[in-house]
Amino acid sequence: GMFYMRTDQPPFNDVRVRRALSLAINRPTWLEALEFGEVCLITGPIPCALPEWKLDVKAIDPAKAKYLVGFDREEARRLLTEAGYPQGFTTPMYHHPGYTTPWPSRYELAVDELSKVGIKAELKPQEYGDYISTTYLGKFEKLAMGPVTPFLEVDDFLYGVFYPGQPDRMEHGGARVAREQDGVPRPDLQGQEGQVQGRGPRGHGHAAPEPHPGRHLRLEGCHLGSLDHLA
Predict the structure, then answer these.
(1) Mean pLDDT over all residues of the chain?
(2) Which of 209, 185, 180, 204 is nearest to 193 (CA)?
(3) Which end of the chain is more exposed for a tag (fewer CB within 10 A), N or C?
(4) What does pTM read for this prediction?
(5) How many alpha carbons fall within 13 Å on the CB side of residue 44?
(6) What Cα–Cα distance (Å) separates residue 100 from each residue in 103, 106, 123, 168, 210?
């Protein structure tokens, strides 16, 4: 599952706020309380079930790894203060309440954990049709939370959320961002999914929809992280 953050909107357009949110989550507690210690911590988009592709936390710079798997409420509060939120802030958190156990507990625990560093998340429940046609496609304000499909192939975890133009892409601006971040000219990739090697039906000539406007902090049993949203 994931936290979805609108990084084209305050306050989540500030990396310090995104890092504070990550540091507010006590991952070992989630593992024990909700998963009975039967899952592992994840450091990227690939889950534990695909060990050949999973990013080992030991291979990551410790200064970055702490934002992926660390827990430090004092540092989270410091980052919020540095970002201009010394008293914290209030944010809606959109979700679908109908997902099976333990998802209701995850929403409640997330609200409780974030409140301890000053992030007051107000649950905004949505009917499934509304959730999947709006929030899942990035049409929400500030923050959302929900599960991720348990794919069987590594490509499915990467293509849909990172390739420009996908509706559930966890990045705002799509191909435009890729071209502008480092100033290097790149071709516009919109509508070129069919040119990707080794794809299934999604990679064969479908017109590209609008890209997803948010970045994400992933949860897998408890919580995961993605380096790009904390960099």
Answers:
(1) 76
(2) 204
(3) C
(4) 0.74
(5) 20
(6) 6, 11, 17, 22, 30
CB atoms within 10 A of CB 104: 13
- 3-state percent breakdown (helix, strand, coil) of the chain, nearest 5: 40, 15, 50
Strands 119-125 and 143-146: unpaired
Alpha carbon distance 227, 36 (integer Å): 26
Neighbours of 231 (CB within 10 A): 11
* Nearest-angstrom CA–CA distance, 122 and 140: 13
Q: What distance in Å separates the CA atoms of residue 112 and residue 134, rounded to the nearest whole number?
A: 25
Contact between 193 and 203 (Cβ < 8 Å): yes
- On the 0-12 / 13-18 / 19+ scale of CB atoms within 10 A, 142 is buried
